[in-house]
Amino acid sequence: MWRWQPRRTLLTTLLILVLACCVLRAPAGCEATPAGRGHLASVSATVDLRTASVSPFPHFWKRSFGSGHALLGTRADWREALNRSAVELGLEGIRMHGILDDDLSVCPAKGQYRFYSVDRVYDYMLSLRVRPLVELSFMPRALVSCGGTFENGSEMPACSWAFSDRGSGPGSYRALVQKPDSFDDWYDLVYAFATHMVQRHGLDEVSKWRWEVCK
User: Fold this and answer.
1) Are 144 and 183 in contact (CB under 8 A)?
2) What is the pLDDT along the chain (215 residues), one digit of tens a residue?
3) Is 55 exposed, middle or buried (0-12, 13-18, 19+ CB in 10 A)?
4) DSSP 3-state assignment of 122?
5) Which backbone phi and psi does 185 adopt, to 5 degrees?
6) Domains of the chain with bracketed CATH
């Protein structure tokens, strides 16, 4: 969840000075009476801006917002909110979960890769000059043996899902948190994904993205 972390600026410094003056002069200028029937005398303050220490206010909130799972990027209301954030706030990046899980169907089977849904999300973001913070998280079901039986008839371990509200089944989205049967398959998927992004958007653009590898 995005949280704004306030920073002291010239404006907040002025506000602190005004409040301090009010508190210091309260005995002479403020009259407290029951039921709020009092009044607060006006207070004036003078600040010499020529000697005040000022610095640029860093717009931390522009760098990146968190946005839940990537499938949300296909929705019209999400896109409307992103457009407004880019235009009105100057948003520069989006971080989202599940870019490689089964919500976007990137890997229906081992060695098969389909990035159509990812392209829909990223293309729209980039059209607004909003870059992805690529989170390589969660596992396609095709790369994990779980929740079934092996060829010899023995039972596979149960699938483990993040954010699950259905016991052992997927929750709000298909966030499988188990390691792949073969890390070679995972390597091939990530390599194919990165290669596709470079071919589609160019190395100069993709090299400006931030990449996060989750374990």
Assistant:
1) no
2) 344 444 445 555 544 554 555 444 444 444 444 545 556 778 888 877 777 777 888 877 778 888 888 999 999 999 999 999 999 988 999 999 889 988 899 999 999 999 999 999 999 999 999 999 999 988 899 999 887 777 787 777 788 887 665 545 555 677 888 889 999 999 999 999 999 999 999 999 999 999 988 65
3) exposed
4) helix
5) -65, -40
6) 10-40 (no CATH), 60-213 (3.20.20.80)
C-alpha dist (Å) from residue 7 to 56, 59, 93, 150, 184: 11, 10, 21, 57, 46
For residue 196, give both structure tokens. Answer: 């596709």
The single residue listed with the structure tokens 């909110």 is: 81
Residue type at 144?
A: V
Burial 94-114 (b: 16+ CB within 10 A, else e): bbbbbbbbbbbbbbeebeebe
- The tokens describing 157, both together, are 């371990």
